[in-house]
Amino acid sequence: MSAFLVLQAARFGDLVQSKRLIRTLEQRGRVHLGVDAGLAPLARLLYPAAEIHGLRLHGRPDAAVLHENRAVFRQWRNMDFQAVYNCNFAGLTAAICRLFEAERVMGYRPARTTAGGITRSAWARLAFRLSERRAFSPLNLVDFWAHFAPSPLAGELVNPPARPGGQGLGVVLAGRESRRSLPLPLLGRMLQILFSLLDGPRIRLLGTAAEQPAARKLLRLLPAKVQEKVEDLSGKTDWPGLVHAVEGLDALVTPDTGIMHLGAHLGVPVLAFFLSSAWCHETGPYGRGHWVWQASRACAPCLESAACPYQVACLDALHGEGFLRSLAAAVRPEARITAAPPDGLQVWRSDLDALGGVLRLHGGHDEYARQRTVTRALLADTLHLWEVDAQNGNALSTALDVAEHAELADLRDWLYKDTDWMLPPGRYC
């Protein structure tokens, strides 16, 4: 049986978003998955068919990492991996990939120069180019990693469609940084509306121990009848406990977080809020039937590492009645609530097409709709997805036909470089 190694040294959410790649490889052989040791128990829950290798990675100098994981590396050296998929553009994982023949490393591999560095595959180079124009980048991270392997499994086979499970409402208290999180007064208002719309469900507050003060503040903002239905699980769940807490929920209210991706993995309907540097077309919930509210200011998406010069103005659109009505319309579509989101806010519904995860606009204005559609079609063309697309009857294949020649030529000139495509498939430039 063929054996494959996937290196995913990043965070919780990235591990979940590697699912399409891992599931594809599981259909072709035995998958070995290298992850940070702290995520190894979760990886075993997500991917029970894979062999999980926990590595001591974070918080240590690279030299210490290489020393402390020698036993795992010796095991890998003795295995005949057909291919090694390095999902991280990082010097550490590139160094680990020196264990293997360069031709077997996909995605990112160490450069064959005395100066060192990292070499990207043509597909990875293209995706990095897309990141230069994030405003109309149409590529979900799940699909980016999936296409490290040829002919990944269909997007429909990755996550189940979103369906309420009867276990109440989950609430993720905070994102990775404060400006990507919903302010507690707003979150309290939303919970009261959702409590009414969903006929008084149980509510589970989710987060780490660092969110426990926020949980206590939020509880004080809620009326007594809502408080009675709240279970504060912040800092109280291990990985199996977190999966149990999320599985079967009727809905999950969350910023762009690992728990959001876990919810999509389990088929829980996600109500996601993307602010600041979070961009839903890149890291939105994967699969059919999720809702996303995306800030659409001219400055969005911003650079996470830079301070916000506008006092996080992308939050402004969430404070009016227009946003709350759009939330009610998404949760109770049978009520036919008329709800146009306010300026500076878009409402999206998650779907799938031949390329993978895609978002359909349900409210607000998308000034980059045309560029995003044509860019998506160009990516499908690059990956030779037209036959699949025609069979599925979706609209990707028509995008190139309707694009004006000049616009299409400009996009091609920017997106593609001759050096990327002159070598045979799978070769690096």
Judging by the overall fold, what is the CATH architecture of the largest domain?
A: 3-Layer(aba) Sandwich
Structural category:
alpha/beta
In whole angstroms, how far apart are the ends?
30 Å
Give the total of beta strands: 14
Global outline: globular
> In angstroms, what is the radius of gyration?
22 Å
Portion in helices: 25-40%
What CATH first level of the largest domain would be assigned? Answer: Alpha Beta
Q: How much beta, percentage-wise?
A: 15-25%
Q: Number of helical segments?
A: 20
> How many structural units, i.e. domains?
3
Strand numbers in spatial order across the main sheet = 9-8-7-10-11-12-13-14
Q: Ranges with pLDDT <50 over ≥5 residues?
A: 387-391
CATH topology of the largest domain: Rossmann fold
CATH superfamily of the largest domain: Glycogen Phosphorylase B
- State mean pLDDT (0 to 100 scale): 88
In this structure, how is the largest beta sheet organized?
8 strands, mixed
How does this structure look, described?
This protein folds into 3 domains: 3-114, 3-Layer(aba) Sandwich (Rossmann fold); 121-153 and 369-423, no CATH class; 169-363, 3-Layer(aba) Sandwich (Rossmann fold), CATH 3.40.50. It is 36% helix and 17% strand. It contains 20 helices and 14 strands. The relative contact order is 0.11. Mean pLDDT is 88; it is low at 387-391.
